[in-house]
Amino acid sequence: MTSVLDCRALAEEYFSWVRARRAELPFTPGVATVMLKGHTDAGSVQYRDFILKDARALGILGRSVEARDEAELTAAIENLNADHEVQGIVVLYPLRARRPDEDFMDLVSARKDIEGLHSVNLGYLLKYRRWIDEPRGIKCVVPATAKAVVKALQSRSEVSVDGAFCTLVNNSLRVGKPLGLMLENLGATVVKCYDKTPRGALEACVRRSDIVVTAVPDPQFRLDPDWVKPGAAVIDVSFGGNVDSESLKGRAAVVTAPDNRIGRLTRAMMFVNLIYCCAAAPEGAGRVA
User: Fold this and answer.
1) CATH number, position 201
2) Which of 93, 206, 237, 251 is deepest in the core (most CB within 10 A)?
3) Could you list the residue range(s) of the whole structural domain that residue 158 is in?
4) How far apart are CA 172 and CA 183, in angstroms?
């Protein structure tokens, strides 16, 4: 029997939590998206629109900034870092700029980094530090997509992360690297595969895996269903679809559906991170409610 993850329903649970915490704040929080005009793909534009739509539904101020060049992009991030009405900043990667994306990840203030990609926040994850200031209720922020995958896995009784062998078909800073750390922190053994991994090695890893997470941006990539171990959990994080979930029914224990993958849950985790950042905001932050 194969269970299909209902990521939308799970996301709604977290959005409800965000709404409740938002109502307790003495100010109206704000989130800003930033993109480099002419360098951003259609998927990033759609993602921005979803974030701003979510913000409106949550009673959160949303703002979109489009920079014309790298100098303007840098200035925009610095201005948002100093803006007391903005508690969360989302830079729409990949930027396809001359400088690597990692440079811009560290330009965003760690206190407003609701994507969890700043070196400070990744360092907390590496050390498995969960609180910045527990008495004040200030939690550490972790990458939203990786957190969404963990929450999805933990929502299913058929899946046990502790002691599991996991293959992650991605090695990025947004998914594979932080997700690997999070799963290891929960007791899993993790192998990360990527574009330079020989196909035979990828197959061998997937065949022995209790959990497989794939997030390959190449639209031509498909995970071979014959590789999947009976009873495994298979999570597709890709935008275009790496997994034929129908072919895994009756074989895998848990799969994601093509029309109900991890995207909305990722955005829910981003707004959870925003609430954490609001707790750490200095006095006088935000627009008075």
Assistant:
1) 3.40.50.720
2) 237
3) 145-258
4) 15
Rg of the chain over all Cα atoms, to the nearest angstrom:
19
Cα–Cα distance, 233 to 212 (Å, whole number): 6
Same domain, 135 and 248: no
Cross-strand partners of 28? 287
Task: Decide if 4 is inside a domain.
Answer: no
DSSP 8-state secondary structure symbol assigned to residue 136: G
Residues 15 and 105 in one domain: yes
160, 185 in Cβ contact below 8 A? no
**Number of domains present in the structure of the chain:** 2
What is the predicted pLDDT for the residue at 286? 62
- pLDDT at position 240: 85
Residue whose tokens read 């947004």: 174
User: Is the domain of 33 the same as that of 93?
Assistant: yes
Q: What is the CATH number of the domain that holds 83?
A: 3.40.50.10860
- Nearest partner of 193 among 226, 168, 165, 218, judged by Cα: 168
Specify whether the CB–CB gap between 46 and 14 falls below 8 A. Answer: no
Token duo for residue 213:
């997470």
Give pLDDT tens digits for 250-267.
Answer: 999 999 988 888 999 999
Number of C-beta neighbours around residue 111 at 10 A: 21
Is 197 in the same domain as 132?
Answer: no
Distance CA 63, CA 56 (A): 10
Selection from 229, 223, 227, 222 nearest residue 252 by Cα: 229
Residue 254 forms part of a structural domain:
yes
Within this chain, do residues 163 and 27 fall inside the same structural domain, yes or no? Answer: no
Of the pLDDT bands very low, low, confident and very high (cuts 50, 70, 90), residue 288 is: low
Maximum CA pair distance of the chain?
A: 58
Burial of 144 (0-12, 13-18, 19+ CB in 10 A): buried
